[in-house]
Amino acid sequence: MQLKSLTPMGAAYHLEQLYDDIRVNRMTDIPILNDKLKVQAVGFREWNQHVLGVLITPWFMNLMLLPTENTDWSTYGVGSKHSYTFEAGSFEFIVGEEERLGKYMSCSMFSPMFEFVDHEAAVQTAEAIVIGMFNAENKEVLGSEPWDEQHESASKESSSMVETVLDGVQTVGAVAKESLEKPMSRRELLRGGFFRNVKNKT
Prior knowledge:
The chain is α+β, with helices and mostly antiparallel strands. It has 2 domains: 8-110, [NiFe]-hydrogenase assembly chaperone, HybE (Yope Regulator, Chain: A, 2-Layer Sandwich), CATH 3.30.1460; 119-200, no CATH class. Helices cover 38% and strands 23% of the residues. It has 6 helices and 6 strands; from the N terminus they run αββββββααααα. It has helices spanning 8-25, 119-132, 147-168, 173-181, 186-190, 193-200, and strands at residues 40-47, 50-56, 61-67, 81-86, 89-98, 102-110. The chain has a 6-stranded antiparallel sheet, sandwiched between helices. Strand 4 and strand 5 (89-98) form a beta hairpin. Helix 3 (147-168) packs parallel to helix 6 (193-200) and helix 4 (173-181) packs across helix 6 (193-200).
């Protein structure tokens, strides 16, 4: 089954229902869960004959790409990789499949999710990602490789960024809005630079 007629709002609702069910029935007692977080779909919209947004769960935050009626993924195998170019640069997605959803693509932003002190922090980061990837001024100076390839090296640096991210979470407000509007590198955007900018202004 492939759900290809969903509106962005319908896709967000369906993903939340599906992954909350996965949380309850498949992830019980799994030690990688951050119990301060819940399942939430953020910023879903139509993009290039797809539905795109960020999915937050207690164990990951992923960019999610779903097909529409005008999109043919019939030849895409589970596990295959496909790059898509946004204003901020190229992002590599991996095809997955769920019985109640059909095929989808995901691009990992964070996993696990222990660096988030509360759900609000995760939502604000997801919102920053959705806004930032459509801002051409955020195009990565570090190179043209798809984000998923850069993610491996960026992840090695993430532990040193964790305290910075968490320290800035408590002072979002108007400063956060200002930070969202400023260009930053994809690495900064997707690994906590949004909150680092907030912290530097407080």
